[in-house]
Design goal:
Number of helices: 22
Radius of gyration: 22 Å
Strand content: under 5%
Order of helices and strands: HHHHEHHHHEEHHHHHEHHHHHHHHH
Largest sheet: 2 strands, antiparallel
Helix content: 55-70%
Number of strands: 4
Shape: globular
Distance between the termini: 76 Å
Structural class: mainly alpha
Length: 485
């Protein structure tokens, strides 16, 4: 009998059971334990969404001055993320997690809600999700993914890495808005105990990572959280007395502080607008409603694509052209996640760049997001426990993952001017504009423009010309509409 084959890492590639065969665990050189650990790391890296999304969506007023409520949005954020993550894991079999998109939720709260009731807002999100699903099923969304040159896909991965690193530094308070400068180190210096938690967590994680200790990122989060709890317990002088950026770590004092029944009253809110929704949208203006849908669609479309490319590159899941097998499965799950976000009143669902934390732990299959989804479901019951982990304890992972994704920059051909400048603008615009989709749009426009200037317009895929035109309209929408208005 032949000996079982093995991956370069020494892990057997022969499937050991139905679960292994379905998720292709051994084939991708992983193990069940690694996938579980990766799912845990992803969960803790993105668990902040359960706290942050309600603070944005739950407190914003709609056109009638109504708010959704923080506890209600928190419950639905966790539950929608749970279902979406499991769906992604089973349908795509890749280690991508889904939850309410940061940035997209700000558009919803501050750009859409002031124009219409919350019920209509979430109906708009459902419509956007259905349109995304149609684009996937017709093959258009996959075709766009395949039309982008491999070098630009790598640049997208690098840009996502820098974006993640900046998110981590900002959320931890290590980088803040400056006094006379856009950003600065801390508040002018590294002051405060929360900054110490971040620095210790970052150093511990780096030490474990370079020593190749399994579970380095998860251990880093645990160590940082224990330190944060100790500091707040012994040195805290009241609510957020130490200056935590969002979540104040505190030990639960009883069963009531551990378990809470999720409030699901927001489920199906999009159906409560009545049959006169079209007349209300007509009052707002058809052009305005279409523009809102287009804005959400465009941001969701390319945020997902950028994150998918970046995380897949990091995990070695793409081929030599930067393409991902079963891209359609990923995009179907992502589109359905957006629909679920509208149905559950949790904002637009999208693939999370924090999935890279799980991939950094070795996750390569859909088991990881299934684990993340299970923890999201539990977090709906144990919200106080999730709240134990402050940003300062979790965000060191994002900085490390950013470094890991940044290393791919060496594979970009900087001798090709179009590819070099397109990659450069893609990479810098993601962190500088705090948007993955902006980085992709500006990068594609730069690549197409330089190719045209060099007389190499034919090397640009026809779809990229269409997408570039769409992005150009999107970026210049206000002056264009004013010109023809």
């Amino acid at each position: 009998m032949n000996a079982p084959s093995s991956s370069p890492s020494g892990v057997s590639t022969e499937p050991t059971g139905a679960l292994d065969r379905f998720f292709r665990v051994s084939e991708r050189g992983s193990t069940l334990g690694t996938e579980i650990r990766g799912g845990l790391a992803t969960f803790f890296a993105m668990a902040y969404v359960i706290v942050l999304n309600p603070l944005i969506i739950g407190t914003a007023e709609d056109v009638n001055g109504d708010t959704l409520g923080i506890p209600q949005v928190a419950a639905m954020t966790a539950l929608v993320a749970a279902v979406s993550c499991v769906l992604m894991g089973v349908v795509s079999r890749y280690p991508f997690a889904i939850a309410a998109g940061m940035g997209l939720n700000a558009v919803v709260a501050y750009g859409v809600a002031p124009l219409m009731p919350w019920s209509d807002v979430f109906l708009l999100i459902v419509v956007e999700g259905v349109l995304l699903l149609i684009l996937v099923m017709t093959g258009f969304r996959t075709a766009v993914f395949s039309a982008i040159p491999a070098g630009l896909k790598t640049a997208i991965a690098v840009g996502v890495g820098l974006f993640l690193a900046l998110v981590g530094l900002v959320n931890a308070g290590f980088v803040q808005a400056g006094d006379g400068t856009p950003v600065q180190l801390g508040d002018g210096g590294l002051n405060g105990w929360p900054i110490l938690v971040f620095v210790v967590g970052l150093l511990v994680t780096i030490a474990l990572y370079v020593r190749k200790i399994p579970g380095a990122m998860l251990i880093g989060i645990v160590v940082s959280t224990v330190l944060a709890l100790a500091l707040e317990t012994f040195l805290g002088d009241g609510e957020n007395g130490l200056g935590w950026s969002l979540t104040v770590p505190s030990l639960p004092t009883g069963v009531g502080d551990l378990v809470s029944v999720p409030d699901v009253s927001l489920l199906g809110l999009f159906l409560q607008g009545g049959s006169d929704v079209l007349s209300r949208w007509s009052e707002i203006g058809v052009a305005t409603v279409v523009t809102l849908i287009f804005t959400l669609l465009l941001a969701d479309f390319f945020d997902t694509m950028g994150t998918m490319v970046g995380v897949a590159h990091q995990g070695g899941l793409t081929d030599e052209d930067g393409n991902l097998e079963n891209t359609r499965g990923v995009l179907v799950a992502d589109s359905v996640g957006t629909i679920l976000g509208g149905v559950g009143s949790a904002s637009v669902g999208t693939v999370y760049a924090e999935s890279a934390a799980g991939v950094g732990e070795g996750a390569r299959t859909g088991i990881a997001p299934v684990v993340t989804g299970a923890l999201m479901l539990l977090s709906a019951l144990f919200t106080p426990l999730v709240s134990l982990v402050p940003f300062e304890a979790a965000t060191p992972i994002l900085v490390i993952v950013g470094f890991m994704m940044m290393t791919q920059v060496t594979s970009i051909d900087f001798q090709d001017p179009a590819l070099a400048l397109g990659s450069f603008t893609t990479i810098i615009m993601m962190p500088f504009t705090y948007s993955i989709s902006n980085g992709i749009g500006i990068g594609l426009l730069t690549y197409a423009f330089v190719s045209l200037v060099l007389g190499k317009g034919r090397q640009v895929h026809p779809l990229l010309w269409v997408i570039s035109a769409v992005f150009l309209f999107h970026f210049a929408e206000a002056p264009i509409l004013a010109l023809f208005g």
